[in-house]
Amino acid sequence: MKPEIRKAIQIVDARHWKKIPLEFGEGFLDLSVPPDSAILSMKDVPALADPRTSIEEALSRPVGVPPIEDIIRSKRRPASRTTVAIAVSDITRPVPYKGEKGILLPLLKRLEASGVRKQDITIVVGTGTHRPSTLAEKRRMFGESVVRNFRVIDHNCENLDSLTSIGKTQKQTDVHINTAFFSADVHIVTGLVESHLMAGASGGRKAVCPALVDRRTIEKFHGPDFLESPCADNLILAGNPCHEEALDVARSVGVDFAVNITLDKDMRLTGVFAGHLEKSHLKAYRFMKGYAAILLDREFDIVLTHSGYVGRNHYQTAKAACSALPAVKKNGTIIIAADNRDREPLGSSSYRDLIGRLKTLGVEGYLKMIKDPVWSFTHDQWGPEMWCRILRKVGETGLIYCSPEIPTAEFSRLPGMSGHDFIDQGEALSGREAAQAMVQNALLYAVSRYPKKGGLPSMAVVREGPYGVPRLRKVS
């Protein structure tokens, strides 16, 4: 621990602070926070009492289209010769696919009951630009029986031989789509509808774009022309260029049926929305927004959040930081507890290079670089661009990133302050113990930076991390 940090945290009187749990991985950190700290939480919404029945009801009474059995019968060829492709999410999304209470088996059973053969059903993991799923991850997501009995493949945005051109979007993007998905007679998409820092909400059309398209289309979707739009933000669909582009692509493909779900703060199923691509997604979005949005009357000096399930690495944890951003004051402090448990805790090699460039060039230098006409779009460049949003508001010293999985040496390429600076490197601490020490000391340090004459700084904790979305009432 740096001497100046040790000195700063020793002068803070935390004897009357209150205890709170903060989600970290599959457990919690036990932290002390100032007594007046606000706990920002999503609205309570009841979990489905009987997920299996709710799933069956949604499939039997879909929104805007007939049930999948009728769609199969409406095709020009017999069901025994009809091919079906199902787009599914990868391991970064906690979609309940597996088992009798998941959404995949009931759907597969209906397809088979309609006469579709197992060998004519392809499950396509929509990776976008993410790495391929491992066999163990596929088993964890979909179950051993599904992986053993059905064709399960990963999308590859770089392999043009596995893609088919479908023409241009209204924004003149030349789109190529996964051939295994596009060539099927019936197209089904699935996913989770939650807030999304670029597209407003996940799910629906995003299961096609960017999940199943070529690298160049993803470049446009993740490029500065889209991402610098003020409408490319959490819970915004109207005027959002990312939403509009994804919807345009999905319409071109022709999605026959969609199955989307919503989750509560504890990752329990709260809703199943099946049917028409757009109508079912809009219904899910409105339902989710009703409990995910956290309306605020003010901003706070210090905001504490966590990476949640989605924050498997630094690249994905940008989502938690951006979700918390509306709650923090200009030049305030954001502290993130990040369980970066992925085999690549920083992210891909491309991302590691790009985040290093942001660290070196600064916000304006990085944006100037990726906007330059001579710049060739680089894989994952959107990630550092999202961190630019954070740095614009709180600066380098206003971001404290606490992740024991990221080695100390790697932090030299990351923006903000390292959680490793807040613990003694000689201490033999487990991952959770290290994270707790990092975050607790970071809180003490953040409080120490505020003048004592004004009392304690205002502080808020985003209980659900990336899933809760604080919004100031005047702009909600």
TL;DR?
With 476 residues, the chain is of the alpha/beta class. It has helices at residues 3-10, 51-60, 68-74, 104-113, 135-142, 144-149, 179-182, 215-221, 224-227, 241-253, 277-292, 314-324, 349-371, 382-394, 431-448; strands at 18-24, 27-33, 38-40, 84-88, 121-125, 151-154, 163-168, 174-178, 186-192, 195-196, 200-201, 257-263, 269-275, 293-296, 300-306, 328-337, 399-402, 417-418, 459-462, 469-472. It contains 15 helices and 20 strands.
Give structural notes.
By secondary structure, the chain is an alpha/beta fold. The chain folds into 2 domains: 3-35 and 297-475, LarA, C-terminal domain (2-enoyl-CoA Hydratase, Chain A, domain 1), CATH 3.90.226; 51-291, LarA, N-terminal domain (Rossmann fold, 3-Layer(aba) Sandwich). The chain has helices at 3-10, 51-60, 68-74, 104-113, 135-142, 144-149, 179-182, 215-221, 224-227, 241-253, 277-292, 314-324, 349-371, 382-394, 431-448, and strands at 18-24, 27-33, 38-40, 84-88, 121-125, 151-154, 163-168, 174-178, 186-192, 195-196, 200-201, 257-263, 269-275, 293-296, 300-306, 328-337, 399-402, 417-418, 459-462, 469-472. A hairpin with a 5-residue loop joins strand 7 and strand 8. The longest helix has 23 residues, at 349-371.
Q: How would you describe this structure in keywords?
A:
476 residues, alpha/beta, Rossmann fold, 2 domains, six-stranded parallel β-sheet, six-stranded mixed β-sheet, 15 helices
Question: In CATH, what is the class of the largest domain?
Answer: Alpha Beta
The number of domains is 2
Spatial order of strands in the largest sheet: 3-19-15-16-17-18
Shape: globular
Strand percentage lies at 15-25%
Q: What is the tally of beta strands?
A: 20
| Structural class estimated from helices and strands | alpha/beta
Distance N to C terminus = 41 Å
CATH superfamily grouping of the largest domain: LarA, N-terminal domain
The average pLDDT is 94
pLDDT under 50 segments (min length 5)?
A: none
Characterize the main sheet: 6 strands, parallel
The CATH topology assignment of the largest domain is Rossmann fold
